[in-house]
From TrEMBL:
SUPFAM superfamilies noted in UniProt: Acyl-CoA N-acyltransferases (Nat)
Pfam families: DUF1999
Domain N-acetyltransferase as annotated: residue spans: 1-151
Transmembrane residue ranges: none
Protein name: N-acetyltransferase domain-containing protein
Gene3D superfamilies hit by this protein: 3.40.630.30
Any one GO MF annotation of this record: acyltransferase activity, transferring groups other than amino-acyl groups
InterPro entries, sorted: Acyl_CoA_acyltransferase, DUF1999, GNAT_dom
């Protein structure tokens, strides 16, 4: 298994993998639209886990500048095993460090994916215990949607 930047020929498989790992979610939940993947492919912090020709997982992340420092913010991490999660997190942390972005953040529901929980603990990503407050604007907000923000 190796980890590499996203490539356009991966896009359909990335979409299928995300929907397989997170079935039945509202459309706004999914992050693998081609326009989004083109952006993340250029971020320097998004990776695909590949074994031969088979895509096993991916992480979508970007640097968010805060004036005096950068945080690499993960929008989506999806994988088929704890081993793949661990490898994706190693690639992500190395890319953040190499870019002088000394903070990595992602939103994860404890217990939702135990294999991710283990990989996060092994990679020393701490649970801050904070809650995410969201408001969805526009037509989606008018329909009462609250999800899809950093999910």
């Amino acid at each position: 298994m190796h980890f590499r930047f996203l490539e356009e020929p991966d896009f359909a498989e990335l979409q299928a993998l995300e929907r397989r790992i997170f079935p039945g979610r509202p459309e706004a939940f999914y992050r693998t639209a081609p326009a989004a993947l083109r952006y993340y492919a250029r971020s320097g912090h998004s990776f695909a886990a590949v074994d031969g020709e088979r895509l096993l997982g991916f992480v979508l992340a970007q640097a968010v500048w805060q004036g005096d420092r950068a945080t690499v913010l993960v929008t989506r991490i999806a994988a088929e095993s704890a081993e793949v999660y661990a490898g994706l997190l190693r690639a992500l942390i190395k890319s953040a460090y190499d870019a002088n972005a000394y903070e990595v953040a992602l939103l994860a529901e404890p217990g939702d994916r135990p294999e991710l929980d283990r990989a996060l603990a092994d990679a020393q990503l701490a649970d801050s215990g904070r809650r995410l407050h969201t408001r969805v604007l526009g037509g989606r907000g008018a329909r009462g949607e609250t999800g899809g923000v950093l999910e």
